[in-house]
Amino acid sequence: MSVWALVPARSFADGKSRLGPALDATARRELARRLFHHVMQQLAGVVDGVLVCTDSDEVAEAAARHGARVHRDPPEAKGLAAVVDGGLRSLAADGALVLMADLPLLTGEDVRQLVARMAEHPVVLVRAQDGRHTNALGLSPPTAFPTAFGGAESFAAHLVAAREAGLRACVVDNPRVAFDVDEPRDLDQIRASSTTGISRPLAFFS
What we know:
Elements: E1 3-8, H1 25-43, E2 49-54, H2 57-65, E3 69-72, H3 80-89, E4 95-99, H4 108-118, E5 123-127, E6 134-139, H5 154-164, E7 169-171, H6 175-178, H7 184-192
């Protein structure tokens, strides 16, 4: 079974706006860049390929340095789900694992475990720490159903879509994959973590 990872990523300069109270624009851009590189490093050698969906030249260049394929977001793609679905349609693989680009605690072993679950289940999900959003979604085939990324309740929506498509879903509870960086309080957890090289560079932003 061939599995590709799909990582949607906005321009580093445009992301992480909710961290404004804690980090200035330069620091937010650098954090977004480091988070992206961390996720890409964890995918290396674990999946059959990586597709980065972006409208940013800077992100596209960073993805290419990691050996990833780049899918440029078309102007008509409105919203994260449209961006992800467009990328999924371009994949010639048995399965696709969609991962967010801001997972500082993600490890290569986490990715391996998700890919292993995909061999047994057509739909594999990891909810975000807020319980409402989706940080990882495995689909076999990649176009099994339209995704709901960007929606207020994407995790529940993905479960409903799987059920309506008659596909067996496996929910994986993994706190590392569930943890993303959206709020200033999330920065403290990154700094305290010894599992990622992002924690040390973040001291610069203190």
